[in-house]
Amino acid sequence: MMDESNDKTDKSCIILVRVFDSCVGDIRTRFLDMPIVNVGTASNLFEALKLSFSNHGLDFSKCLAFMSDTTNVMKGTRSGVQKLIRNQYPHVFDVSCICHLAAISN
């Protein structure tokens, strides 16, 4: 899961991962990183995502799904982060964040 902030100082995005934890034999959600991305374009966010995976020894090609909010920068069909992911990793499923969907449905 990836979500960006709208703070007035440095712009950061939070990256959470769900991984199989072989120590406990279960799937766990873990904080991965919170990189600074002051220019929040889809390409900058995608590069930050890939760099965070790489810096933590994770192979992005093994990613199964990507979850984010429903903003154009994340879900844009021409140049959003999800589109950039699908261009390089067509097997990655697009999953919308249920919390963000619930917020916009009210």
Low-confidence stretches: none
How are the strands of the largest sheet arranged? 1-2-3
Helix content, binned percent = 25-40%
Percent strand equals 25-35%
* Global structural class: alpha+beta
Order of helices and strands: EEEHEHHEH
Main pleated sheet:
3 strands, antiparallel
CATH fold annotation: Nucleotidyltransferase, domain 5
Number of helices: 4
Task: Tally the beta strands.
Answer: 5
Cα-based radius of gyration, to the nearest Å:
14 Å
Number of domains: 1
Shape: globular
The first-to-last residue Cα distance is 23 Å
What is the average per-residue confidence, as pLDDT, rounded to a whole number? 87
Oligomer: single chain
| Second-tier CATH architecture | 2-Layer Sandwich
CATH class: Alpha Beta
3D architecture notes:
The structure is a single chain. With 106 residues, the chain is α+β, with helices and mostly antiparallel strands. It has one domain (2-105): Nucleotidyltransferase, domain 5. The protein has 4 helices and 5 strands, in the order E-E-E-H-E-H-H-E-H. Strands 1-2-3 form a 3-stranded antiparallel beta sheet, with helices on one face. A two-stranded parallel sheet has the order 4-5. The two termini are 23 Å apart. The model has no long low-confidence stretch (mean pLDDT 87).
